[in-house]
Amino acid sequence: MTESLYNAQTVPAGGEGDPSPDELVARAIALRPLLREKQDEHAELGSYSEEVHKAFTEARLYDILRPRRYGGLEYPVSVFFRVAIEISRGDPGVGWSFTLGSGHTYQLSSYFPERAQEEAYAARPFVAPSRALPMGKAVRVEGGYRLSGTWDYNSGCTWSTHAMPVAPVVDEDGRAVNHMFLVDRADFEILPDWGGDATVGLQASSSNSIVIDDVFIPEHRAVVYDFKAHEWGDTGTVGYQLHKSPLYLGRSLFFFYAELVSTQLGAAWAALDEWEQLLERSTSFPPRIPRTESGEYQLWYGRLLSLVETATTVLIGAATLQTELNERWIQGGPEYTVRMDARVRGIVLKAAELADEAVMLAMQTAGSSAAKRNSRLAKYARDVLMYRTHIGAQFDALYAAGARTVLTGQPPTT
């Protein structure tokens, strides 16, 4: 089984006694057999099991982006995405659930005030899905808001300690201003509308709907949802002021799409694993020779390996670039602007295209046995197909939106 070259990447370790980035990646890799063993169980469940949740917790995988101030590791986003890829290599659906459930640590730590962070990080681990599309209704009242509504596609909600839905708030001038809210788990219901045969793929992503019924949200648990277009000025974000870490400067275009794309890289590596096992067979037509000696199979394997490794290099490279652009501002350089963030997002989208191309190539060249219902390779292809229905995978629309931002400076609409 071929391992990613990026598993040799070295990032400075954290505090004394903390696992290093490479140790975290190794822990995620060690869970791969368990995740593959439980693929059918997790698909039916619509999420991952308590056993796996405990394993993620004990391995401190939920702590990667959590601030050190609150007992976390506070590692760069490249570490988070390396781990996300490895979890997704075990099961892309579980990877989707883990990544989007734990990834909102990034937004919480970047944009919510200290009091909200202290309350949220009292939970260990902190897991919170979010639905960025504004839904529901939020009404201003003394000291905060009354929040009601139903939000679909809350990926990562099964083991959530909180939720972070977005809803419009009408201001004094009659304008609807979108806010993100921090809601305790006791204050929302998870609907049983995910898993099993509900979708063609990514069944384990725990993308259920949640319902909030007239819940009071204090003022400090609501922030204006302008993360995509927020300008730092001289002070950066609230989170940067609190933690003094470039991690919490919170540019969100790159980060959100990289979360999704990391699952596709996992699917591509998983497809490569399945395809490598097929190399043990002989070719179909005489003279029958080992596939490892066949020019056609050597060509296909070379293309697969190149696609997967290039996609990984692109994503992790973009994550490293984002960190470097943040650090440059801290050192007195220019701000990492929304225009720049749109460009880095464009890099990440290309990684997704390469990864998905790899999965389709593996499927097309594997033979008809790979199309059977119980085939893991077919499962990975279905997971990719499900991803391609997401707004975050409509590449042409996103490339165009990014170009508008780069050319005109207008905040992105997608």
Features:
Butyryl-CoA Dehydrogenase, subunit A, domain 2; globular; 3-stranded antiparallel beta sheet; 9 strands; 414 residues; 3 domains; 4-stranded antiparallel beta sheet; Butyryl-Coa Dehydrogenase, subunit A, domain 1; alpha+beta; Butyryl-CoA Dehydrogenase, subunit A, domain 3
Description:
Helices cover 47% and strands 10% of the residues. It is α+β, with helices and mostly antiparallel strands. Helix 6 packs antiparallel against helix 10. It is globular and about 80 Å long. The relative contact order is 0.12.
Top-tier CATH class of the largest domain? Mainly Alpha
Percent strand equals 5-15%
Listing every helix as H and every strand as E from the N terminus to the C terminus, the arrangement reads: HHHHHHHHEEEEEEEEEHHHHHH
Here the CATH topology of the largest domain equals Butyryl-CoA Dehydrogenase, subunit A, domain 3
Poorly predicted runs of 5 or more residues: none
What's the average pLDDT? 94
Q: Using DSSP, what is the number of strands?
A: 9
Spatial order of the strands forming the largest sheet: 1-2-8-7
Helix content: 40-55%
Number of distinct helices: 14
What count of structural domains?
Answer: 3
Q: Please identify the structural class as seen in this structure.
A: alpha+beta
